[in-house]
Design a protein that fits this description.
Shape: globular
Strand content: under 5%
Protein name: L-fucose permease
Distance between the termini: 24 Å
GO cellular component, one term: plasma membrane
CATH architecture: Up-down Bundle
Number of helices: 19
Subcellular location: Cell inner membrane
Largest sheet: 2 strands, antiparallel
Order of helices and strands: HHHHHHHHEEHHHHHHHHHHEEEHE
Pfam family, one: MFS_1
Keywords: Cell membrane, Membrane, Transmembrane, Transmembrane helix
CATH superfamily: MFS general substrate transporter like domains
Length: 497
């Protein structure tokens, strides 16, 4: 690894990936990270409305939380997190993220405690700083955890594995609004910030508890590609080759020429922007468009996040059957249709559709992340940081929607996320087209990862199926020497996961 190595106390996964029971412990730890930031994100959307009420700020001003969370944290800090990941490995990066997360959460206590009617605007500035610190921690965790969930197991199931891990993010995200509906919007609490202190104190304690677990755990590291690339033959039926579907050695091109990653970043930017705006203005939409109270709307937001969570688990199962790019194309079409109705509809039916759209959002983030980080080879960890930077779309879209909502109404402002879903549709449709319009997940003779001399590859890769009877002895020897271009008898083409 450039600039550093794998921590000595962490066993490296050499020559392949973890399988079966080997995956249970490390994935359980990773799932705890997804749970933490899901809970934090669920609280963020509720705080938007609560701060409007208690601190007397406008809808546009309240989106400062999203700007700090997604812009300051994810856009500005993700590259730093990616560099730490590149140099120090997964465990150190995760501990750094948990430390920042817990620090930001505990800072909510003095900020809320000293808030009064005379310093409301200044207090909101303090909450923005707290949110920024939490976001830096979450950006660090997400850079490491998303990448780790992808590379630790079978590349063929990378999308399904990340879907499963992120499903627990959804579980926590609907628990947040459920708690907030009671803690923030009931009785005298709807006009003060007392319970905000206690909720975020609990969040900080949870972050520190998980950090202790990670500190004492021997987390398996996955080494990135380090030296010369060459294919290898494992046995009579399994051939490993470090080549992509275009026939080129993966990770050979410089980072700025990894166009699939760049387009994946754009799609991720627009998707997260759309997702965040839909959730951030959910309570405003429900109270203005269907006359629900803030407490009722907060509960309905939690229902939407339950739908989101169920959608994640369902998408996990579907990803083991269907091609991920095909699935996402279908989901995007439904999301666009539902979003158009939300922007035009009225009443409780429109709120129902607003809840339903969460189902079609569910698989988008992990699928785009998996597609965007495929075939990066030695660039995998930095590429993961760049894809996580795409979360900064959540800082750009909400202010735009807030301005439209203040000027024309919350309902009309839902045209903004509609534009984001259209961009995602363009990306995944193009990806699906360039990979052969396949519908069912390909289950050829052998599904394999690339083998790199000196360590396991750090990313999802294109795979090649071959017919052992047609693969010549000379071809095998060429692979061993690294002359991949001389291989003959390769059949079945290449397959991206």
């Amino acid at each position: 690894m450039a600039g550093g190595g794998i921590p000595m106390n962490a066993p490296a996964v050499q020559g392949g990936y973890l399988k079966g029971k080997q995956l249970i412990f490390p994935l359980s730890l990773v799932i705890s990270l997804f749970f933490l930031w899901g809970f934090s994100y669920g609280l963020l959307d509720v705080l938007n409305k609560h701060f409007q009420t208690v601190l007397g700020i406008t809808k546009l001003e309240s989106t400062g939380l999203q700007v700090m969370y997604f812009g300051g944290g994810y856009l500005c800090y993700s590259p730093i997190a990616a560099e730490v990941l590149k140099r120090k490995g997964y465990k150190v990066t995760i501990l750094m993220g948990l430390a920042l997360y817990s620090l930001g959460a505990i800072m909510f206590w003095p900020t809320a405690h000293f808030t009064s009617a005379t310093n409301a605007k200044a207090s909101f500035g303090g909450f923005l700083v707290c949110t920024l610190v939490i976001a830096c921690g979450l950006a660090t965790l997400e850079t490491a955890a998303n990448s780790y969930a992808v590379v630790i197991g079978d590349p063929a199931l990378a999308s399904a594995r990340l879907q499963f891990c992120q499903s627990w993010n959804g579980v926590a995200s609907f628990i947040g609004p459920l708690i907030a509906s009671k803690a923030f919007f009931s009785g005298a609490n709807q006009n003060n910030l007392t319970n905000v202190q206690y909720v975020y104190l609990a969040v900080s304690c949870a972050g520190m508890a998980v950090a202790v677990l990670f500190f004492f755990a021997k987390l398996p590291e996955v080494a990135e590609e380090t030296g010369g690339r060459r294919g290898s033959v494992i046995d009579d039926n399994t051939l490993e080759m470090a080549i992509g579907h275009d026939g080129k050695v993966i990770g050979d091109a410089p980072l700025y020429k990894q166009y699939n990653m760049i387009f994946g970043f754009i799609a991720q930017f627009c998707y997260v922007g759309a997702q965040v705006t839909i959730a951030s203005f959910f309570i405003n939409y429900a109270t203005e468009n269907a006359s629900y109270t803030s407490a009722q709307a907060s509960q309905m937001l939690s229902y939407g996040l339950i739908v989101f969570t169920v959608g994640r688990f369902i998408a996990t199962g579907l990803a083991t059957i269907f091609e991920s790019n095909f699935l996402l194309t279908i989901y995007c079409c439904f999301a666009i249709a539902f979003n158009a109705y939300i922007a035009a509809g009225h009443g409780k039916a429109a709120v129902g559709v607003l809840i339903a759209i969460f189902f079609f959002e569910a698989p988008m983030y992990p699928t785009i992340f998996t597609l965007g980080t495929a075939n990066l080879g030695r660039h995998t960890r930095r590429g993961a940081g760049i894809l996580v930077m795409g979360v900064s779309g959540g800082a750009v879209f909400p202010p735009i929607q807030g301005a439209v909502a203040d000027a024309a109404g919350t309902r009309i402002s839902y045209v903004v996320p509609l534009c984001g879903f259209v961009v995602v549709l363009v990306y995944v449709t193009y990806h699906w087209a360039t990979h052969g319009f396949k519908i069912m997940r390909q289950k050829g003779a052998t599904v394999i990862a690339a083998s790199i001399e000196g360590g396991a590859v750090g990313g999802v890769v294109e795979t090649v199926h071959y017919d052992e009877k047609k693969l010549s002895t000379a071809g095998i020897e060429n692979i061993r020497r690294g002359s991949i271009g001389s291989v003959t008898g390769v059949t079945g083409g290449a397959k991206a996961y």
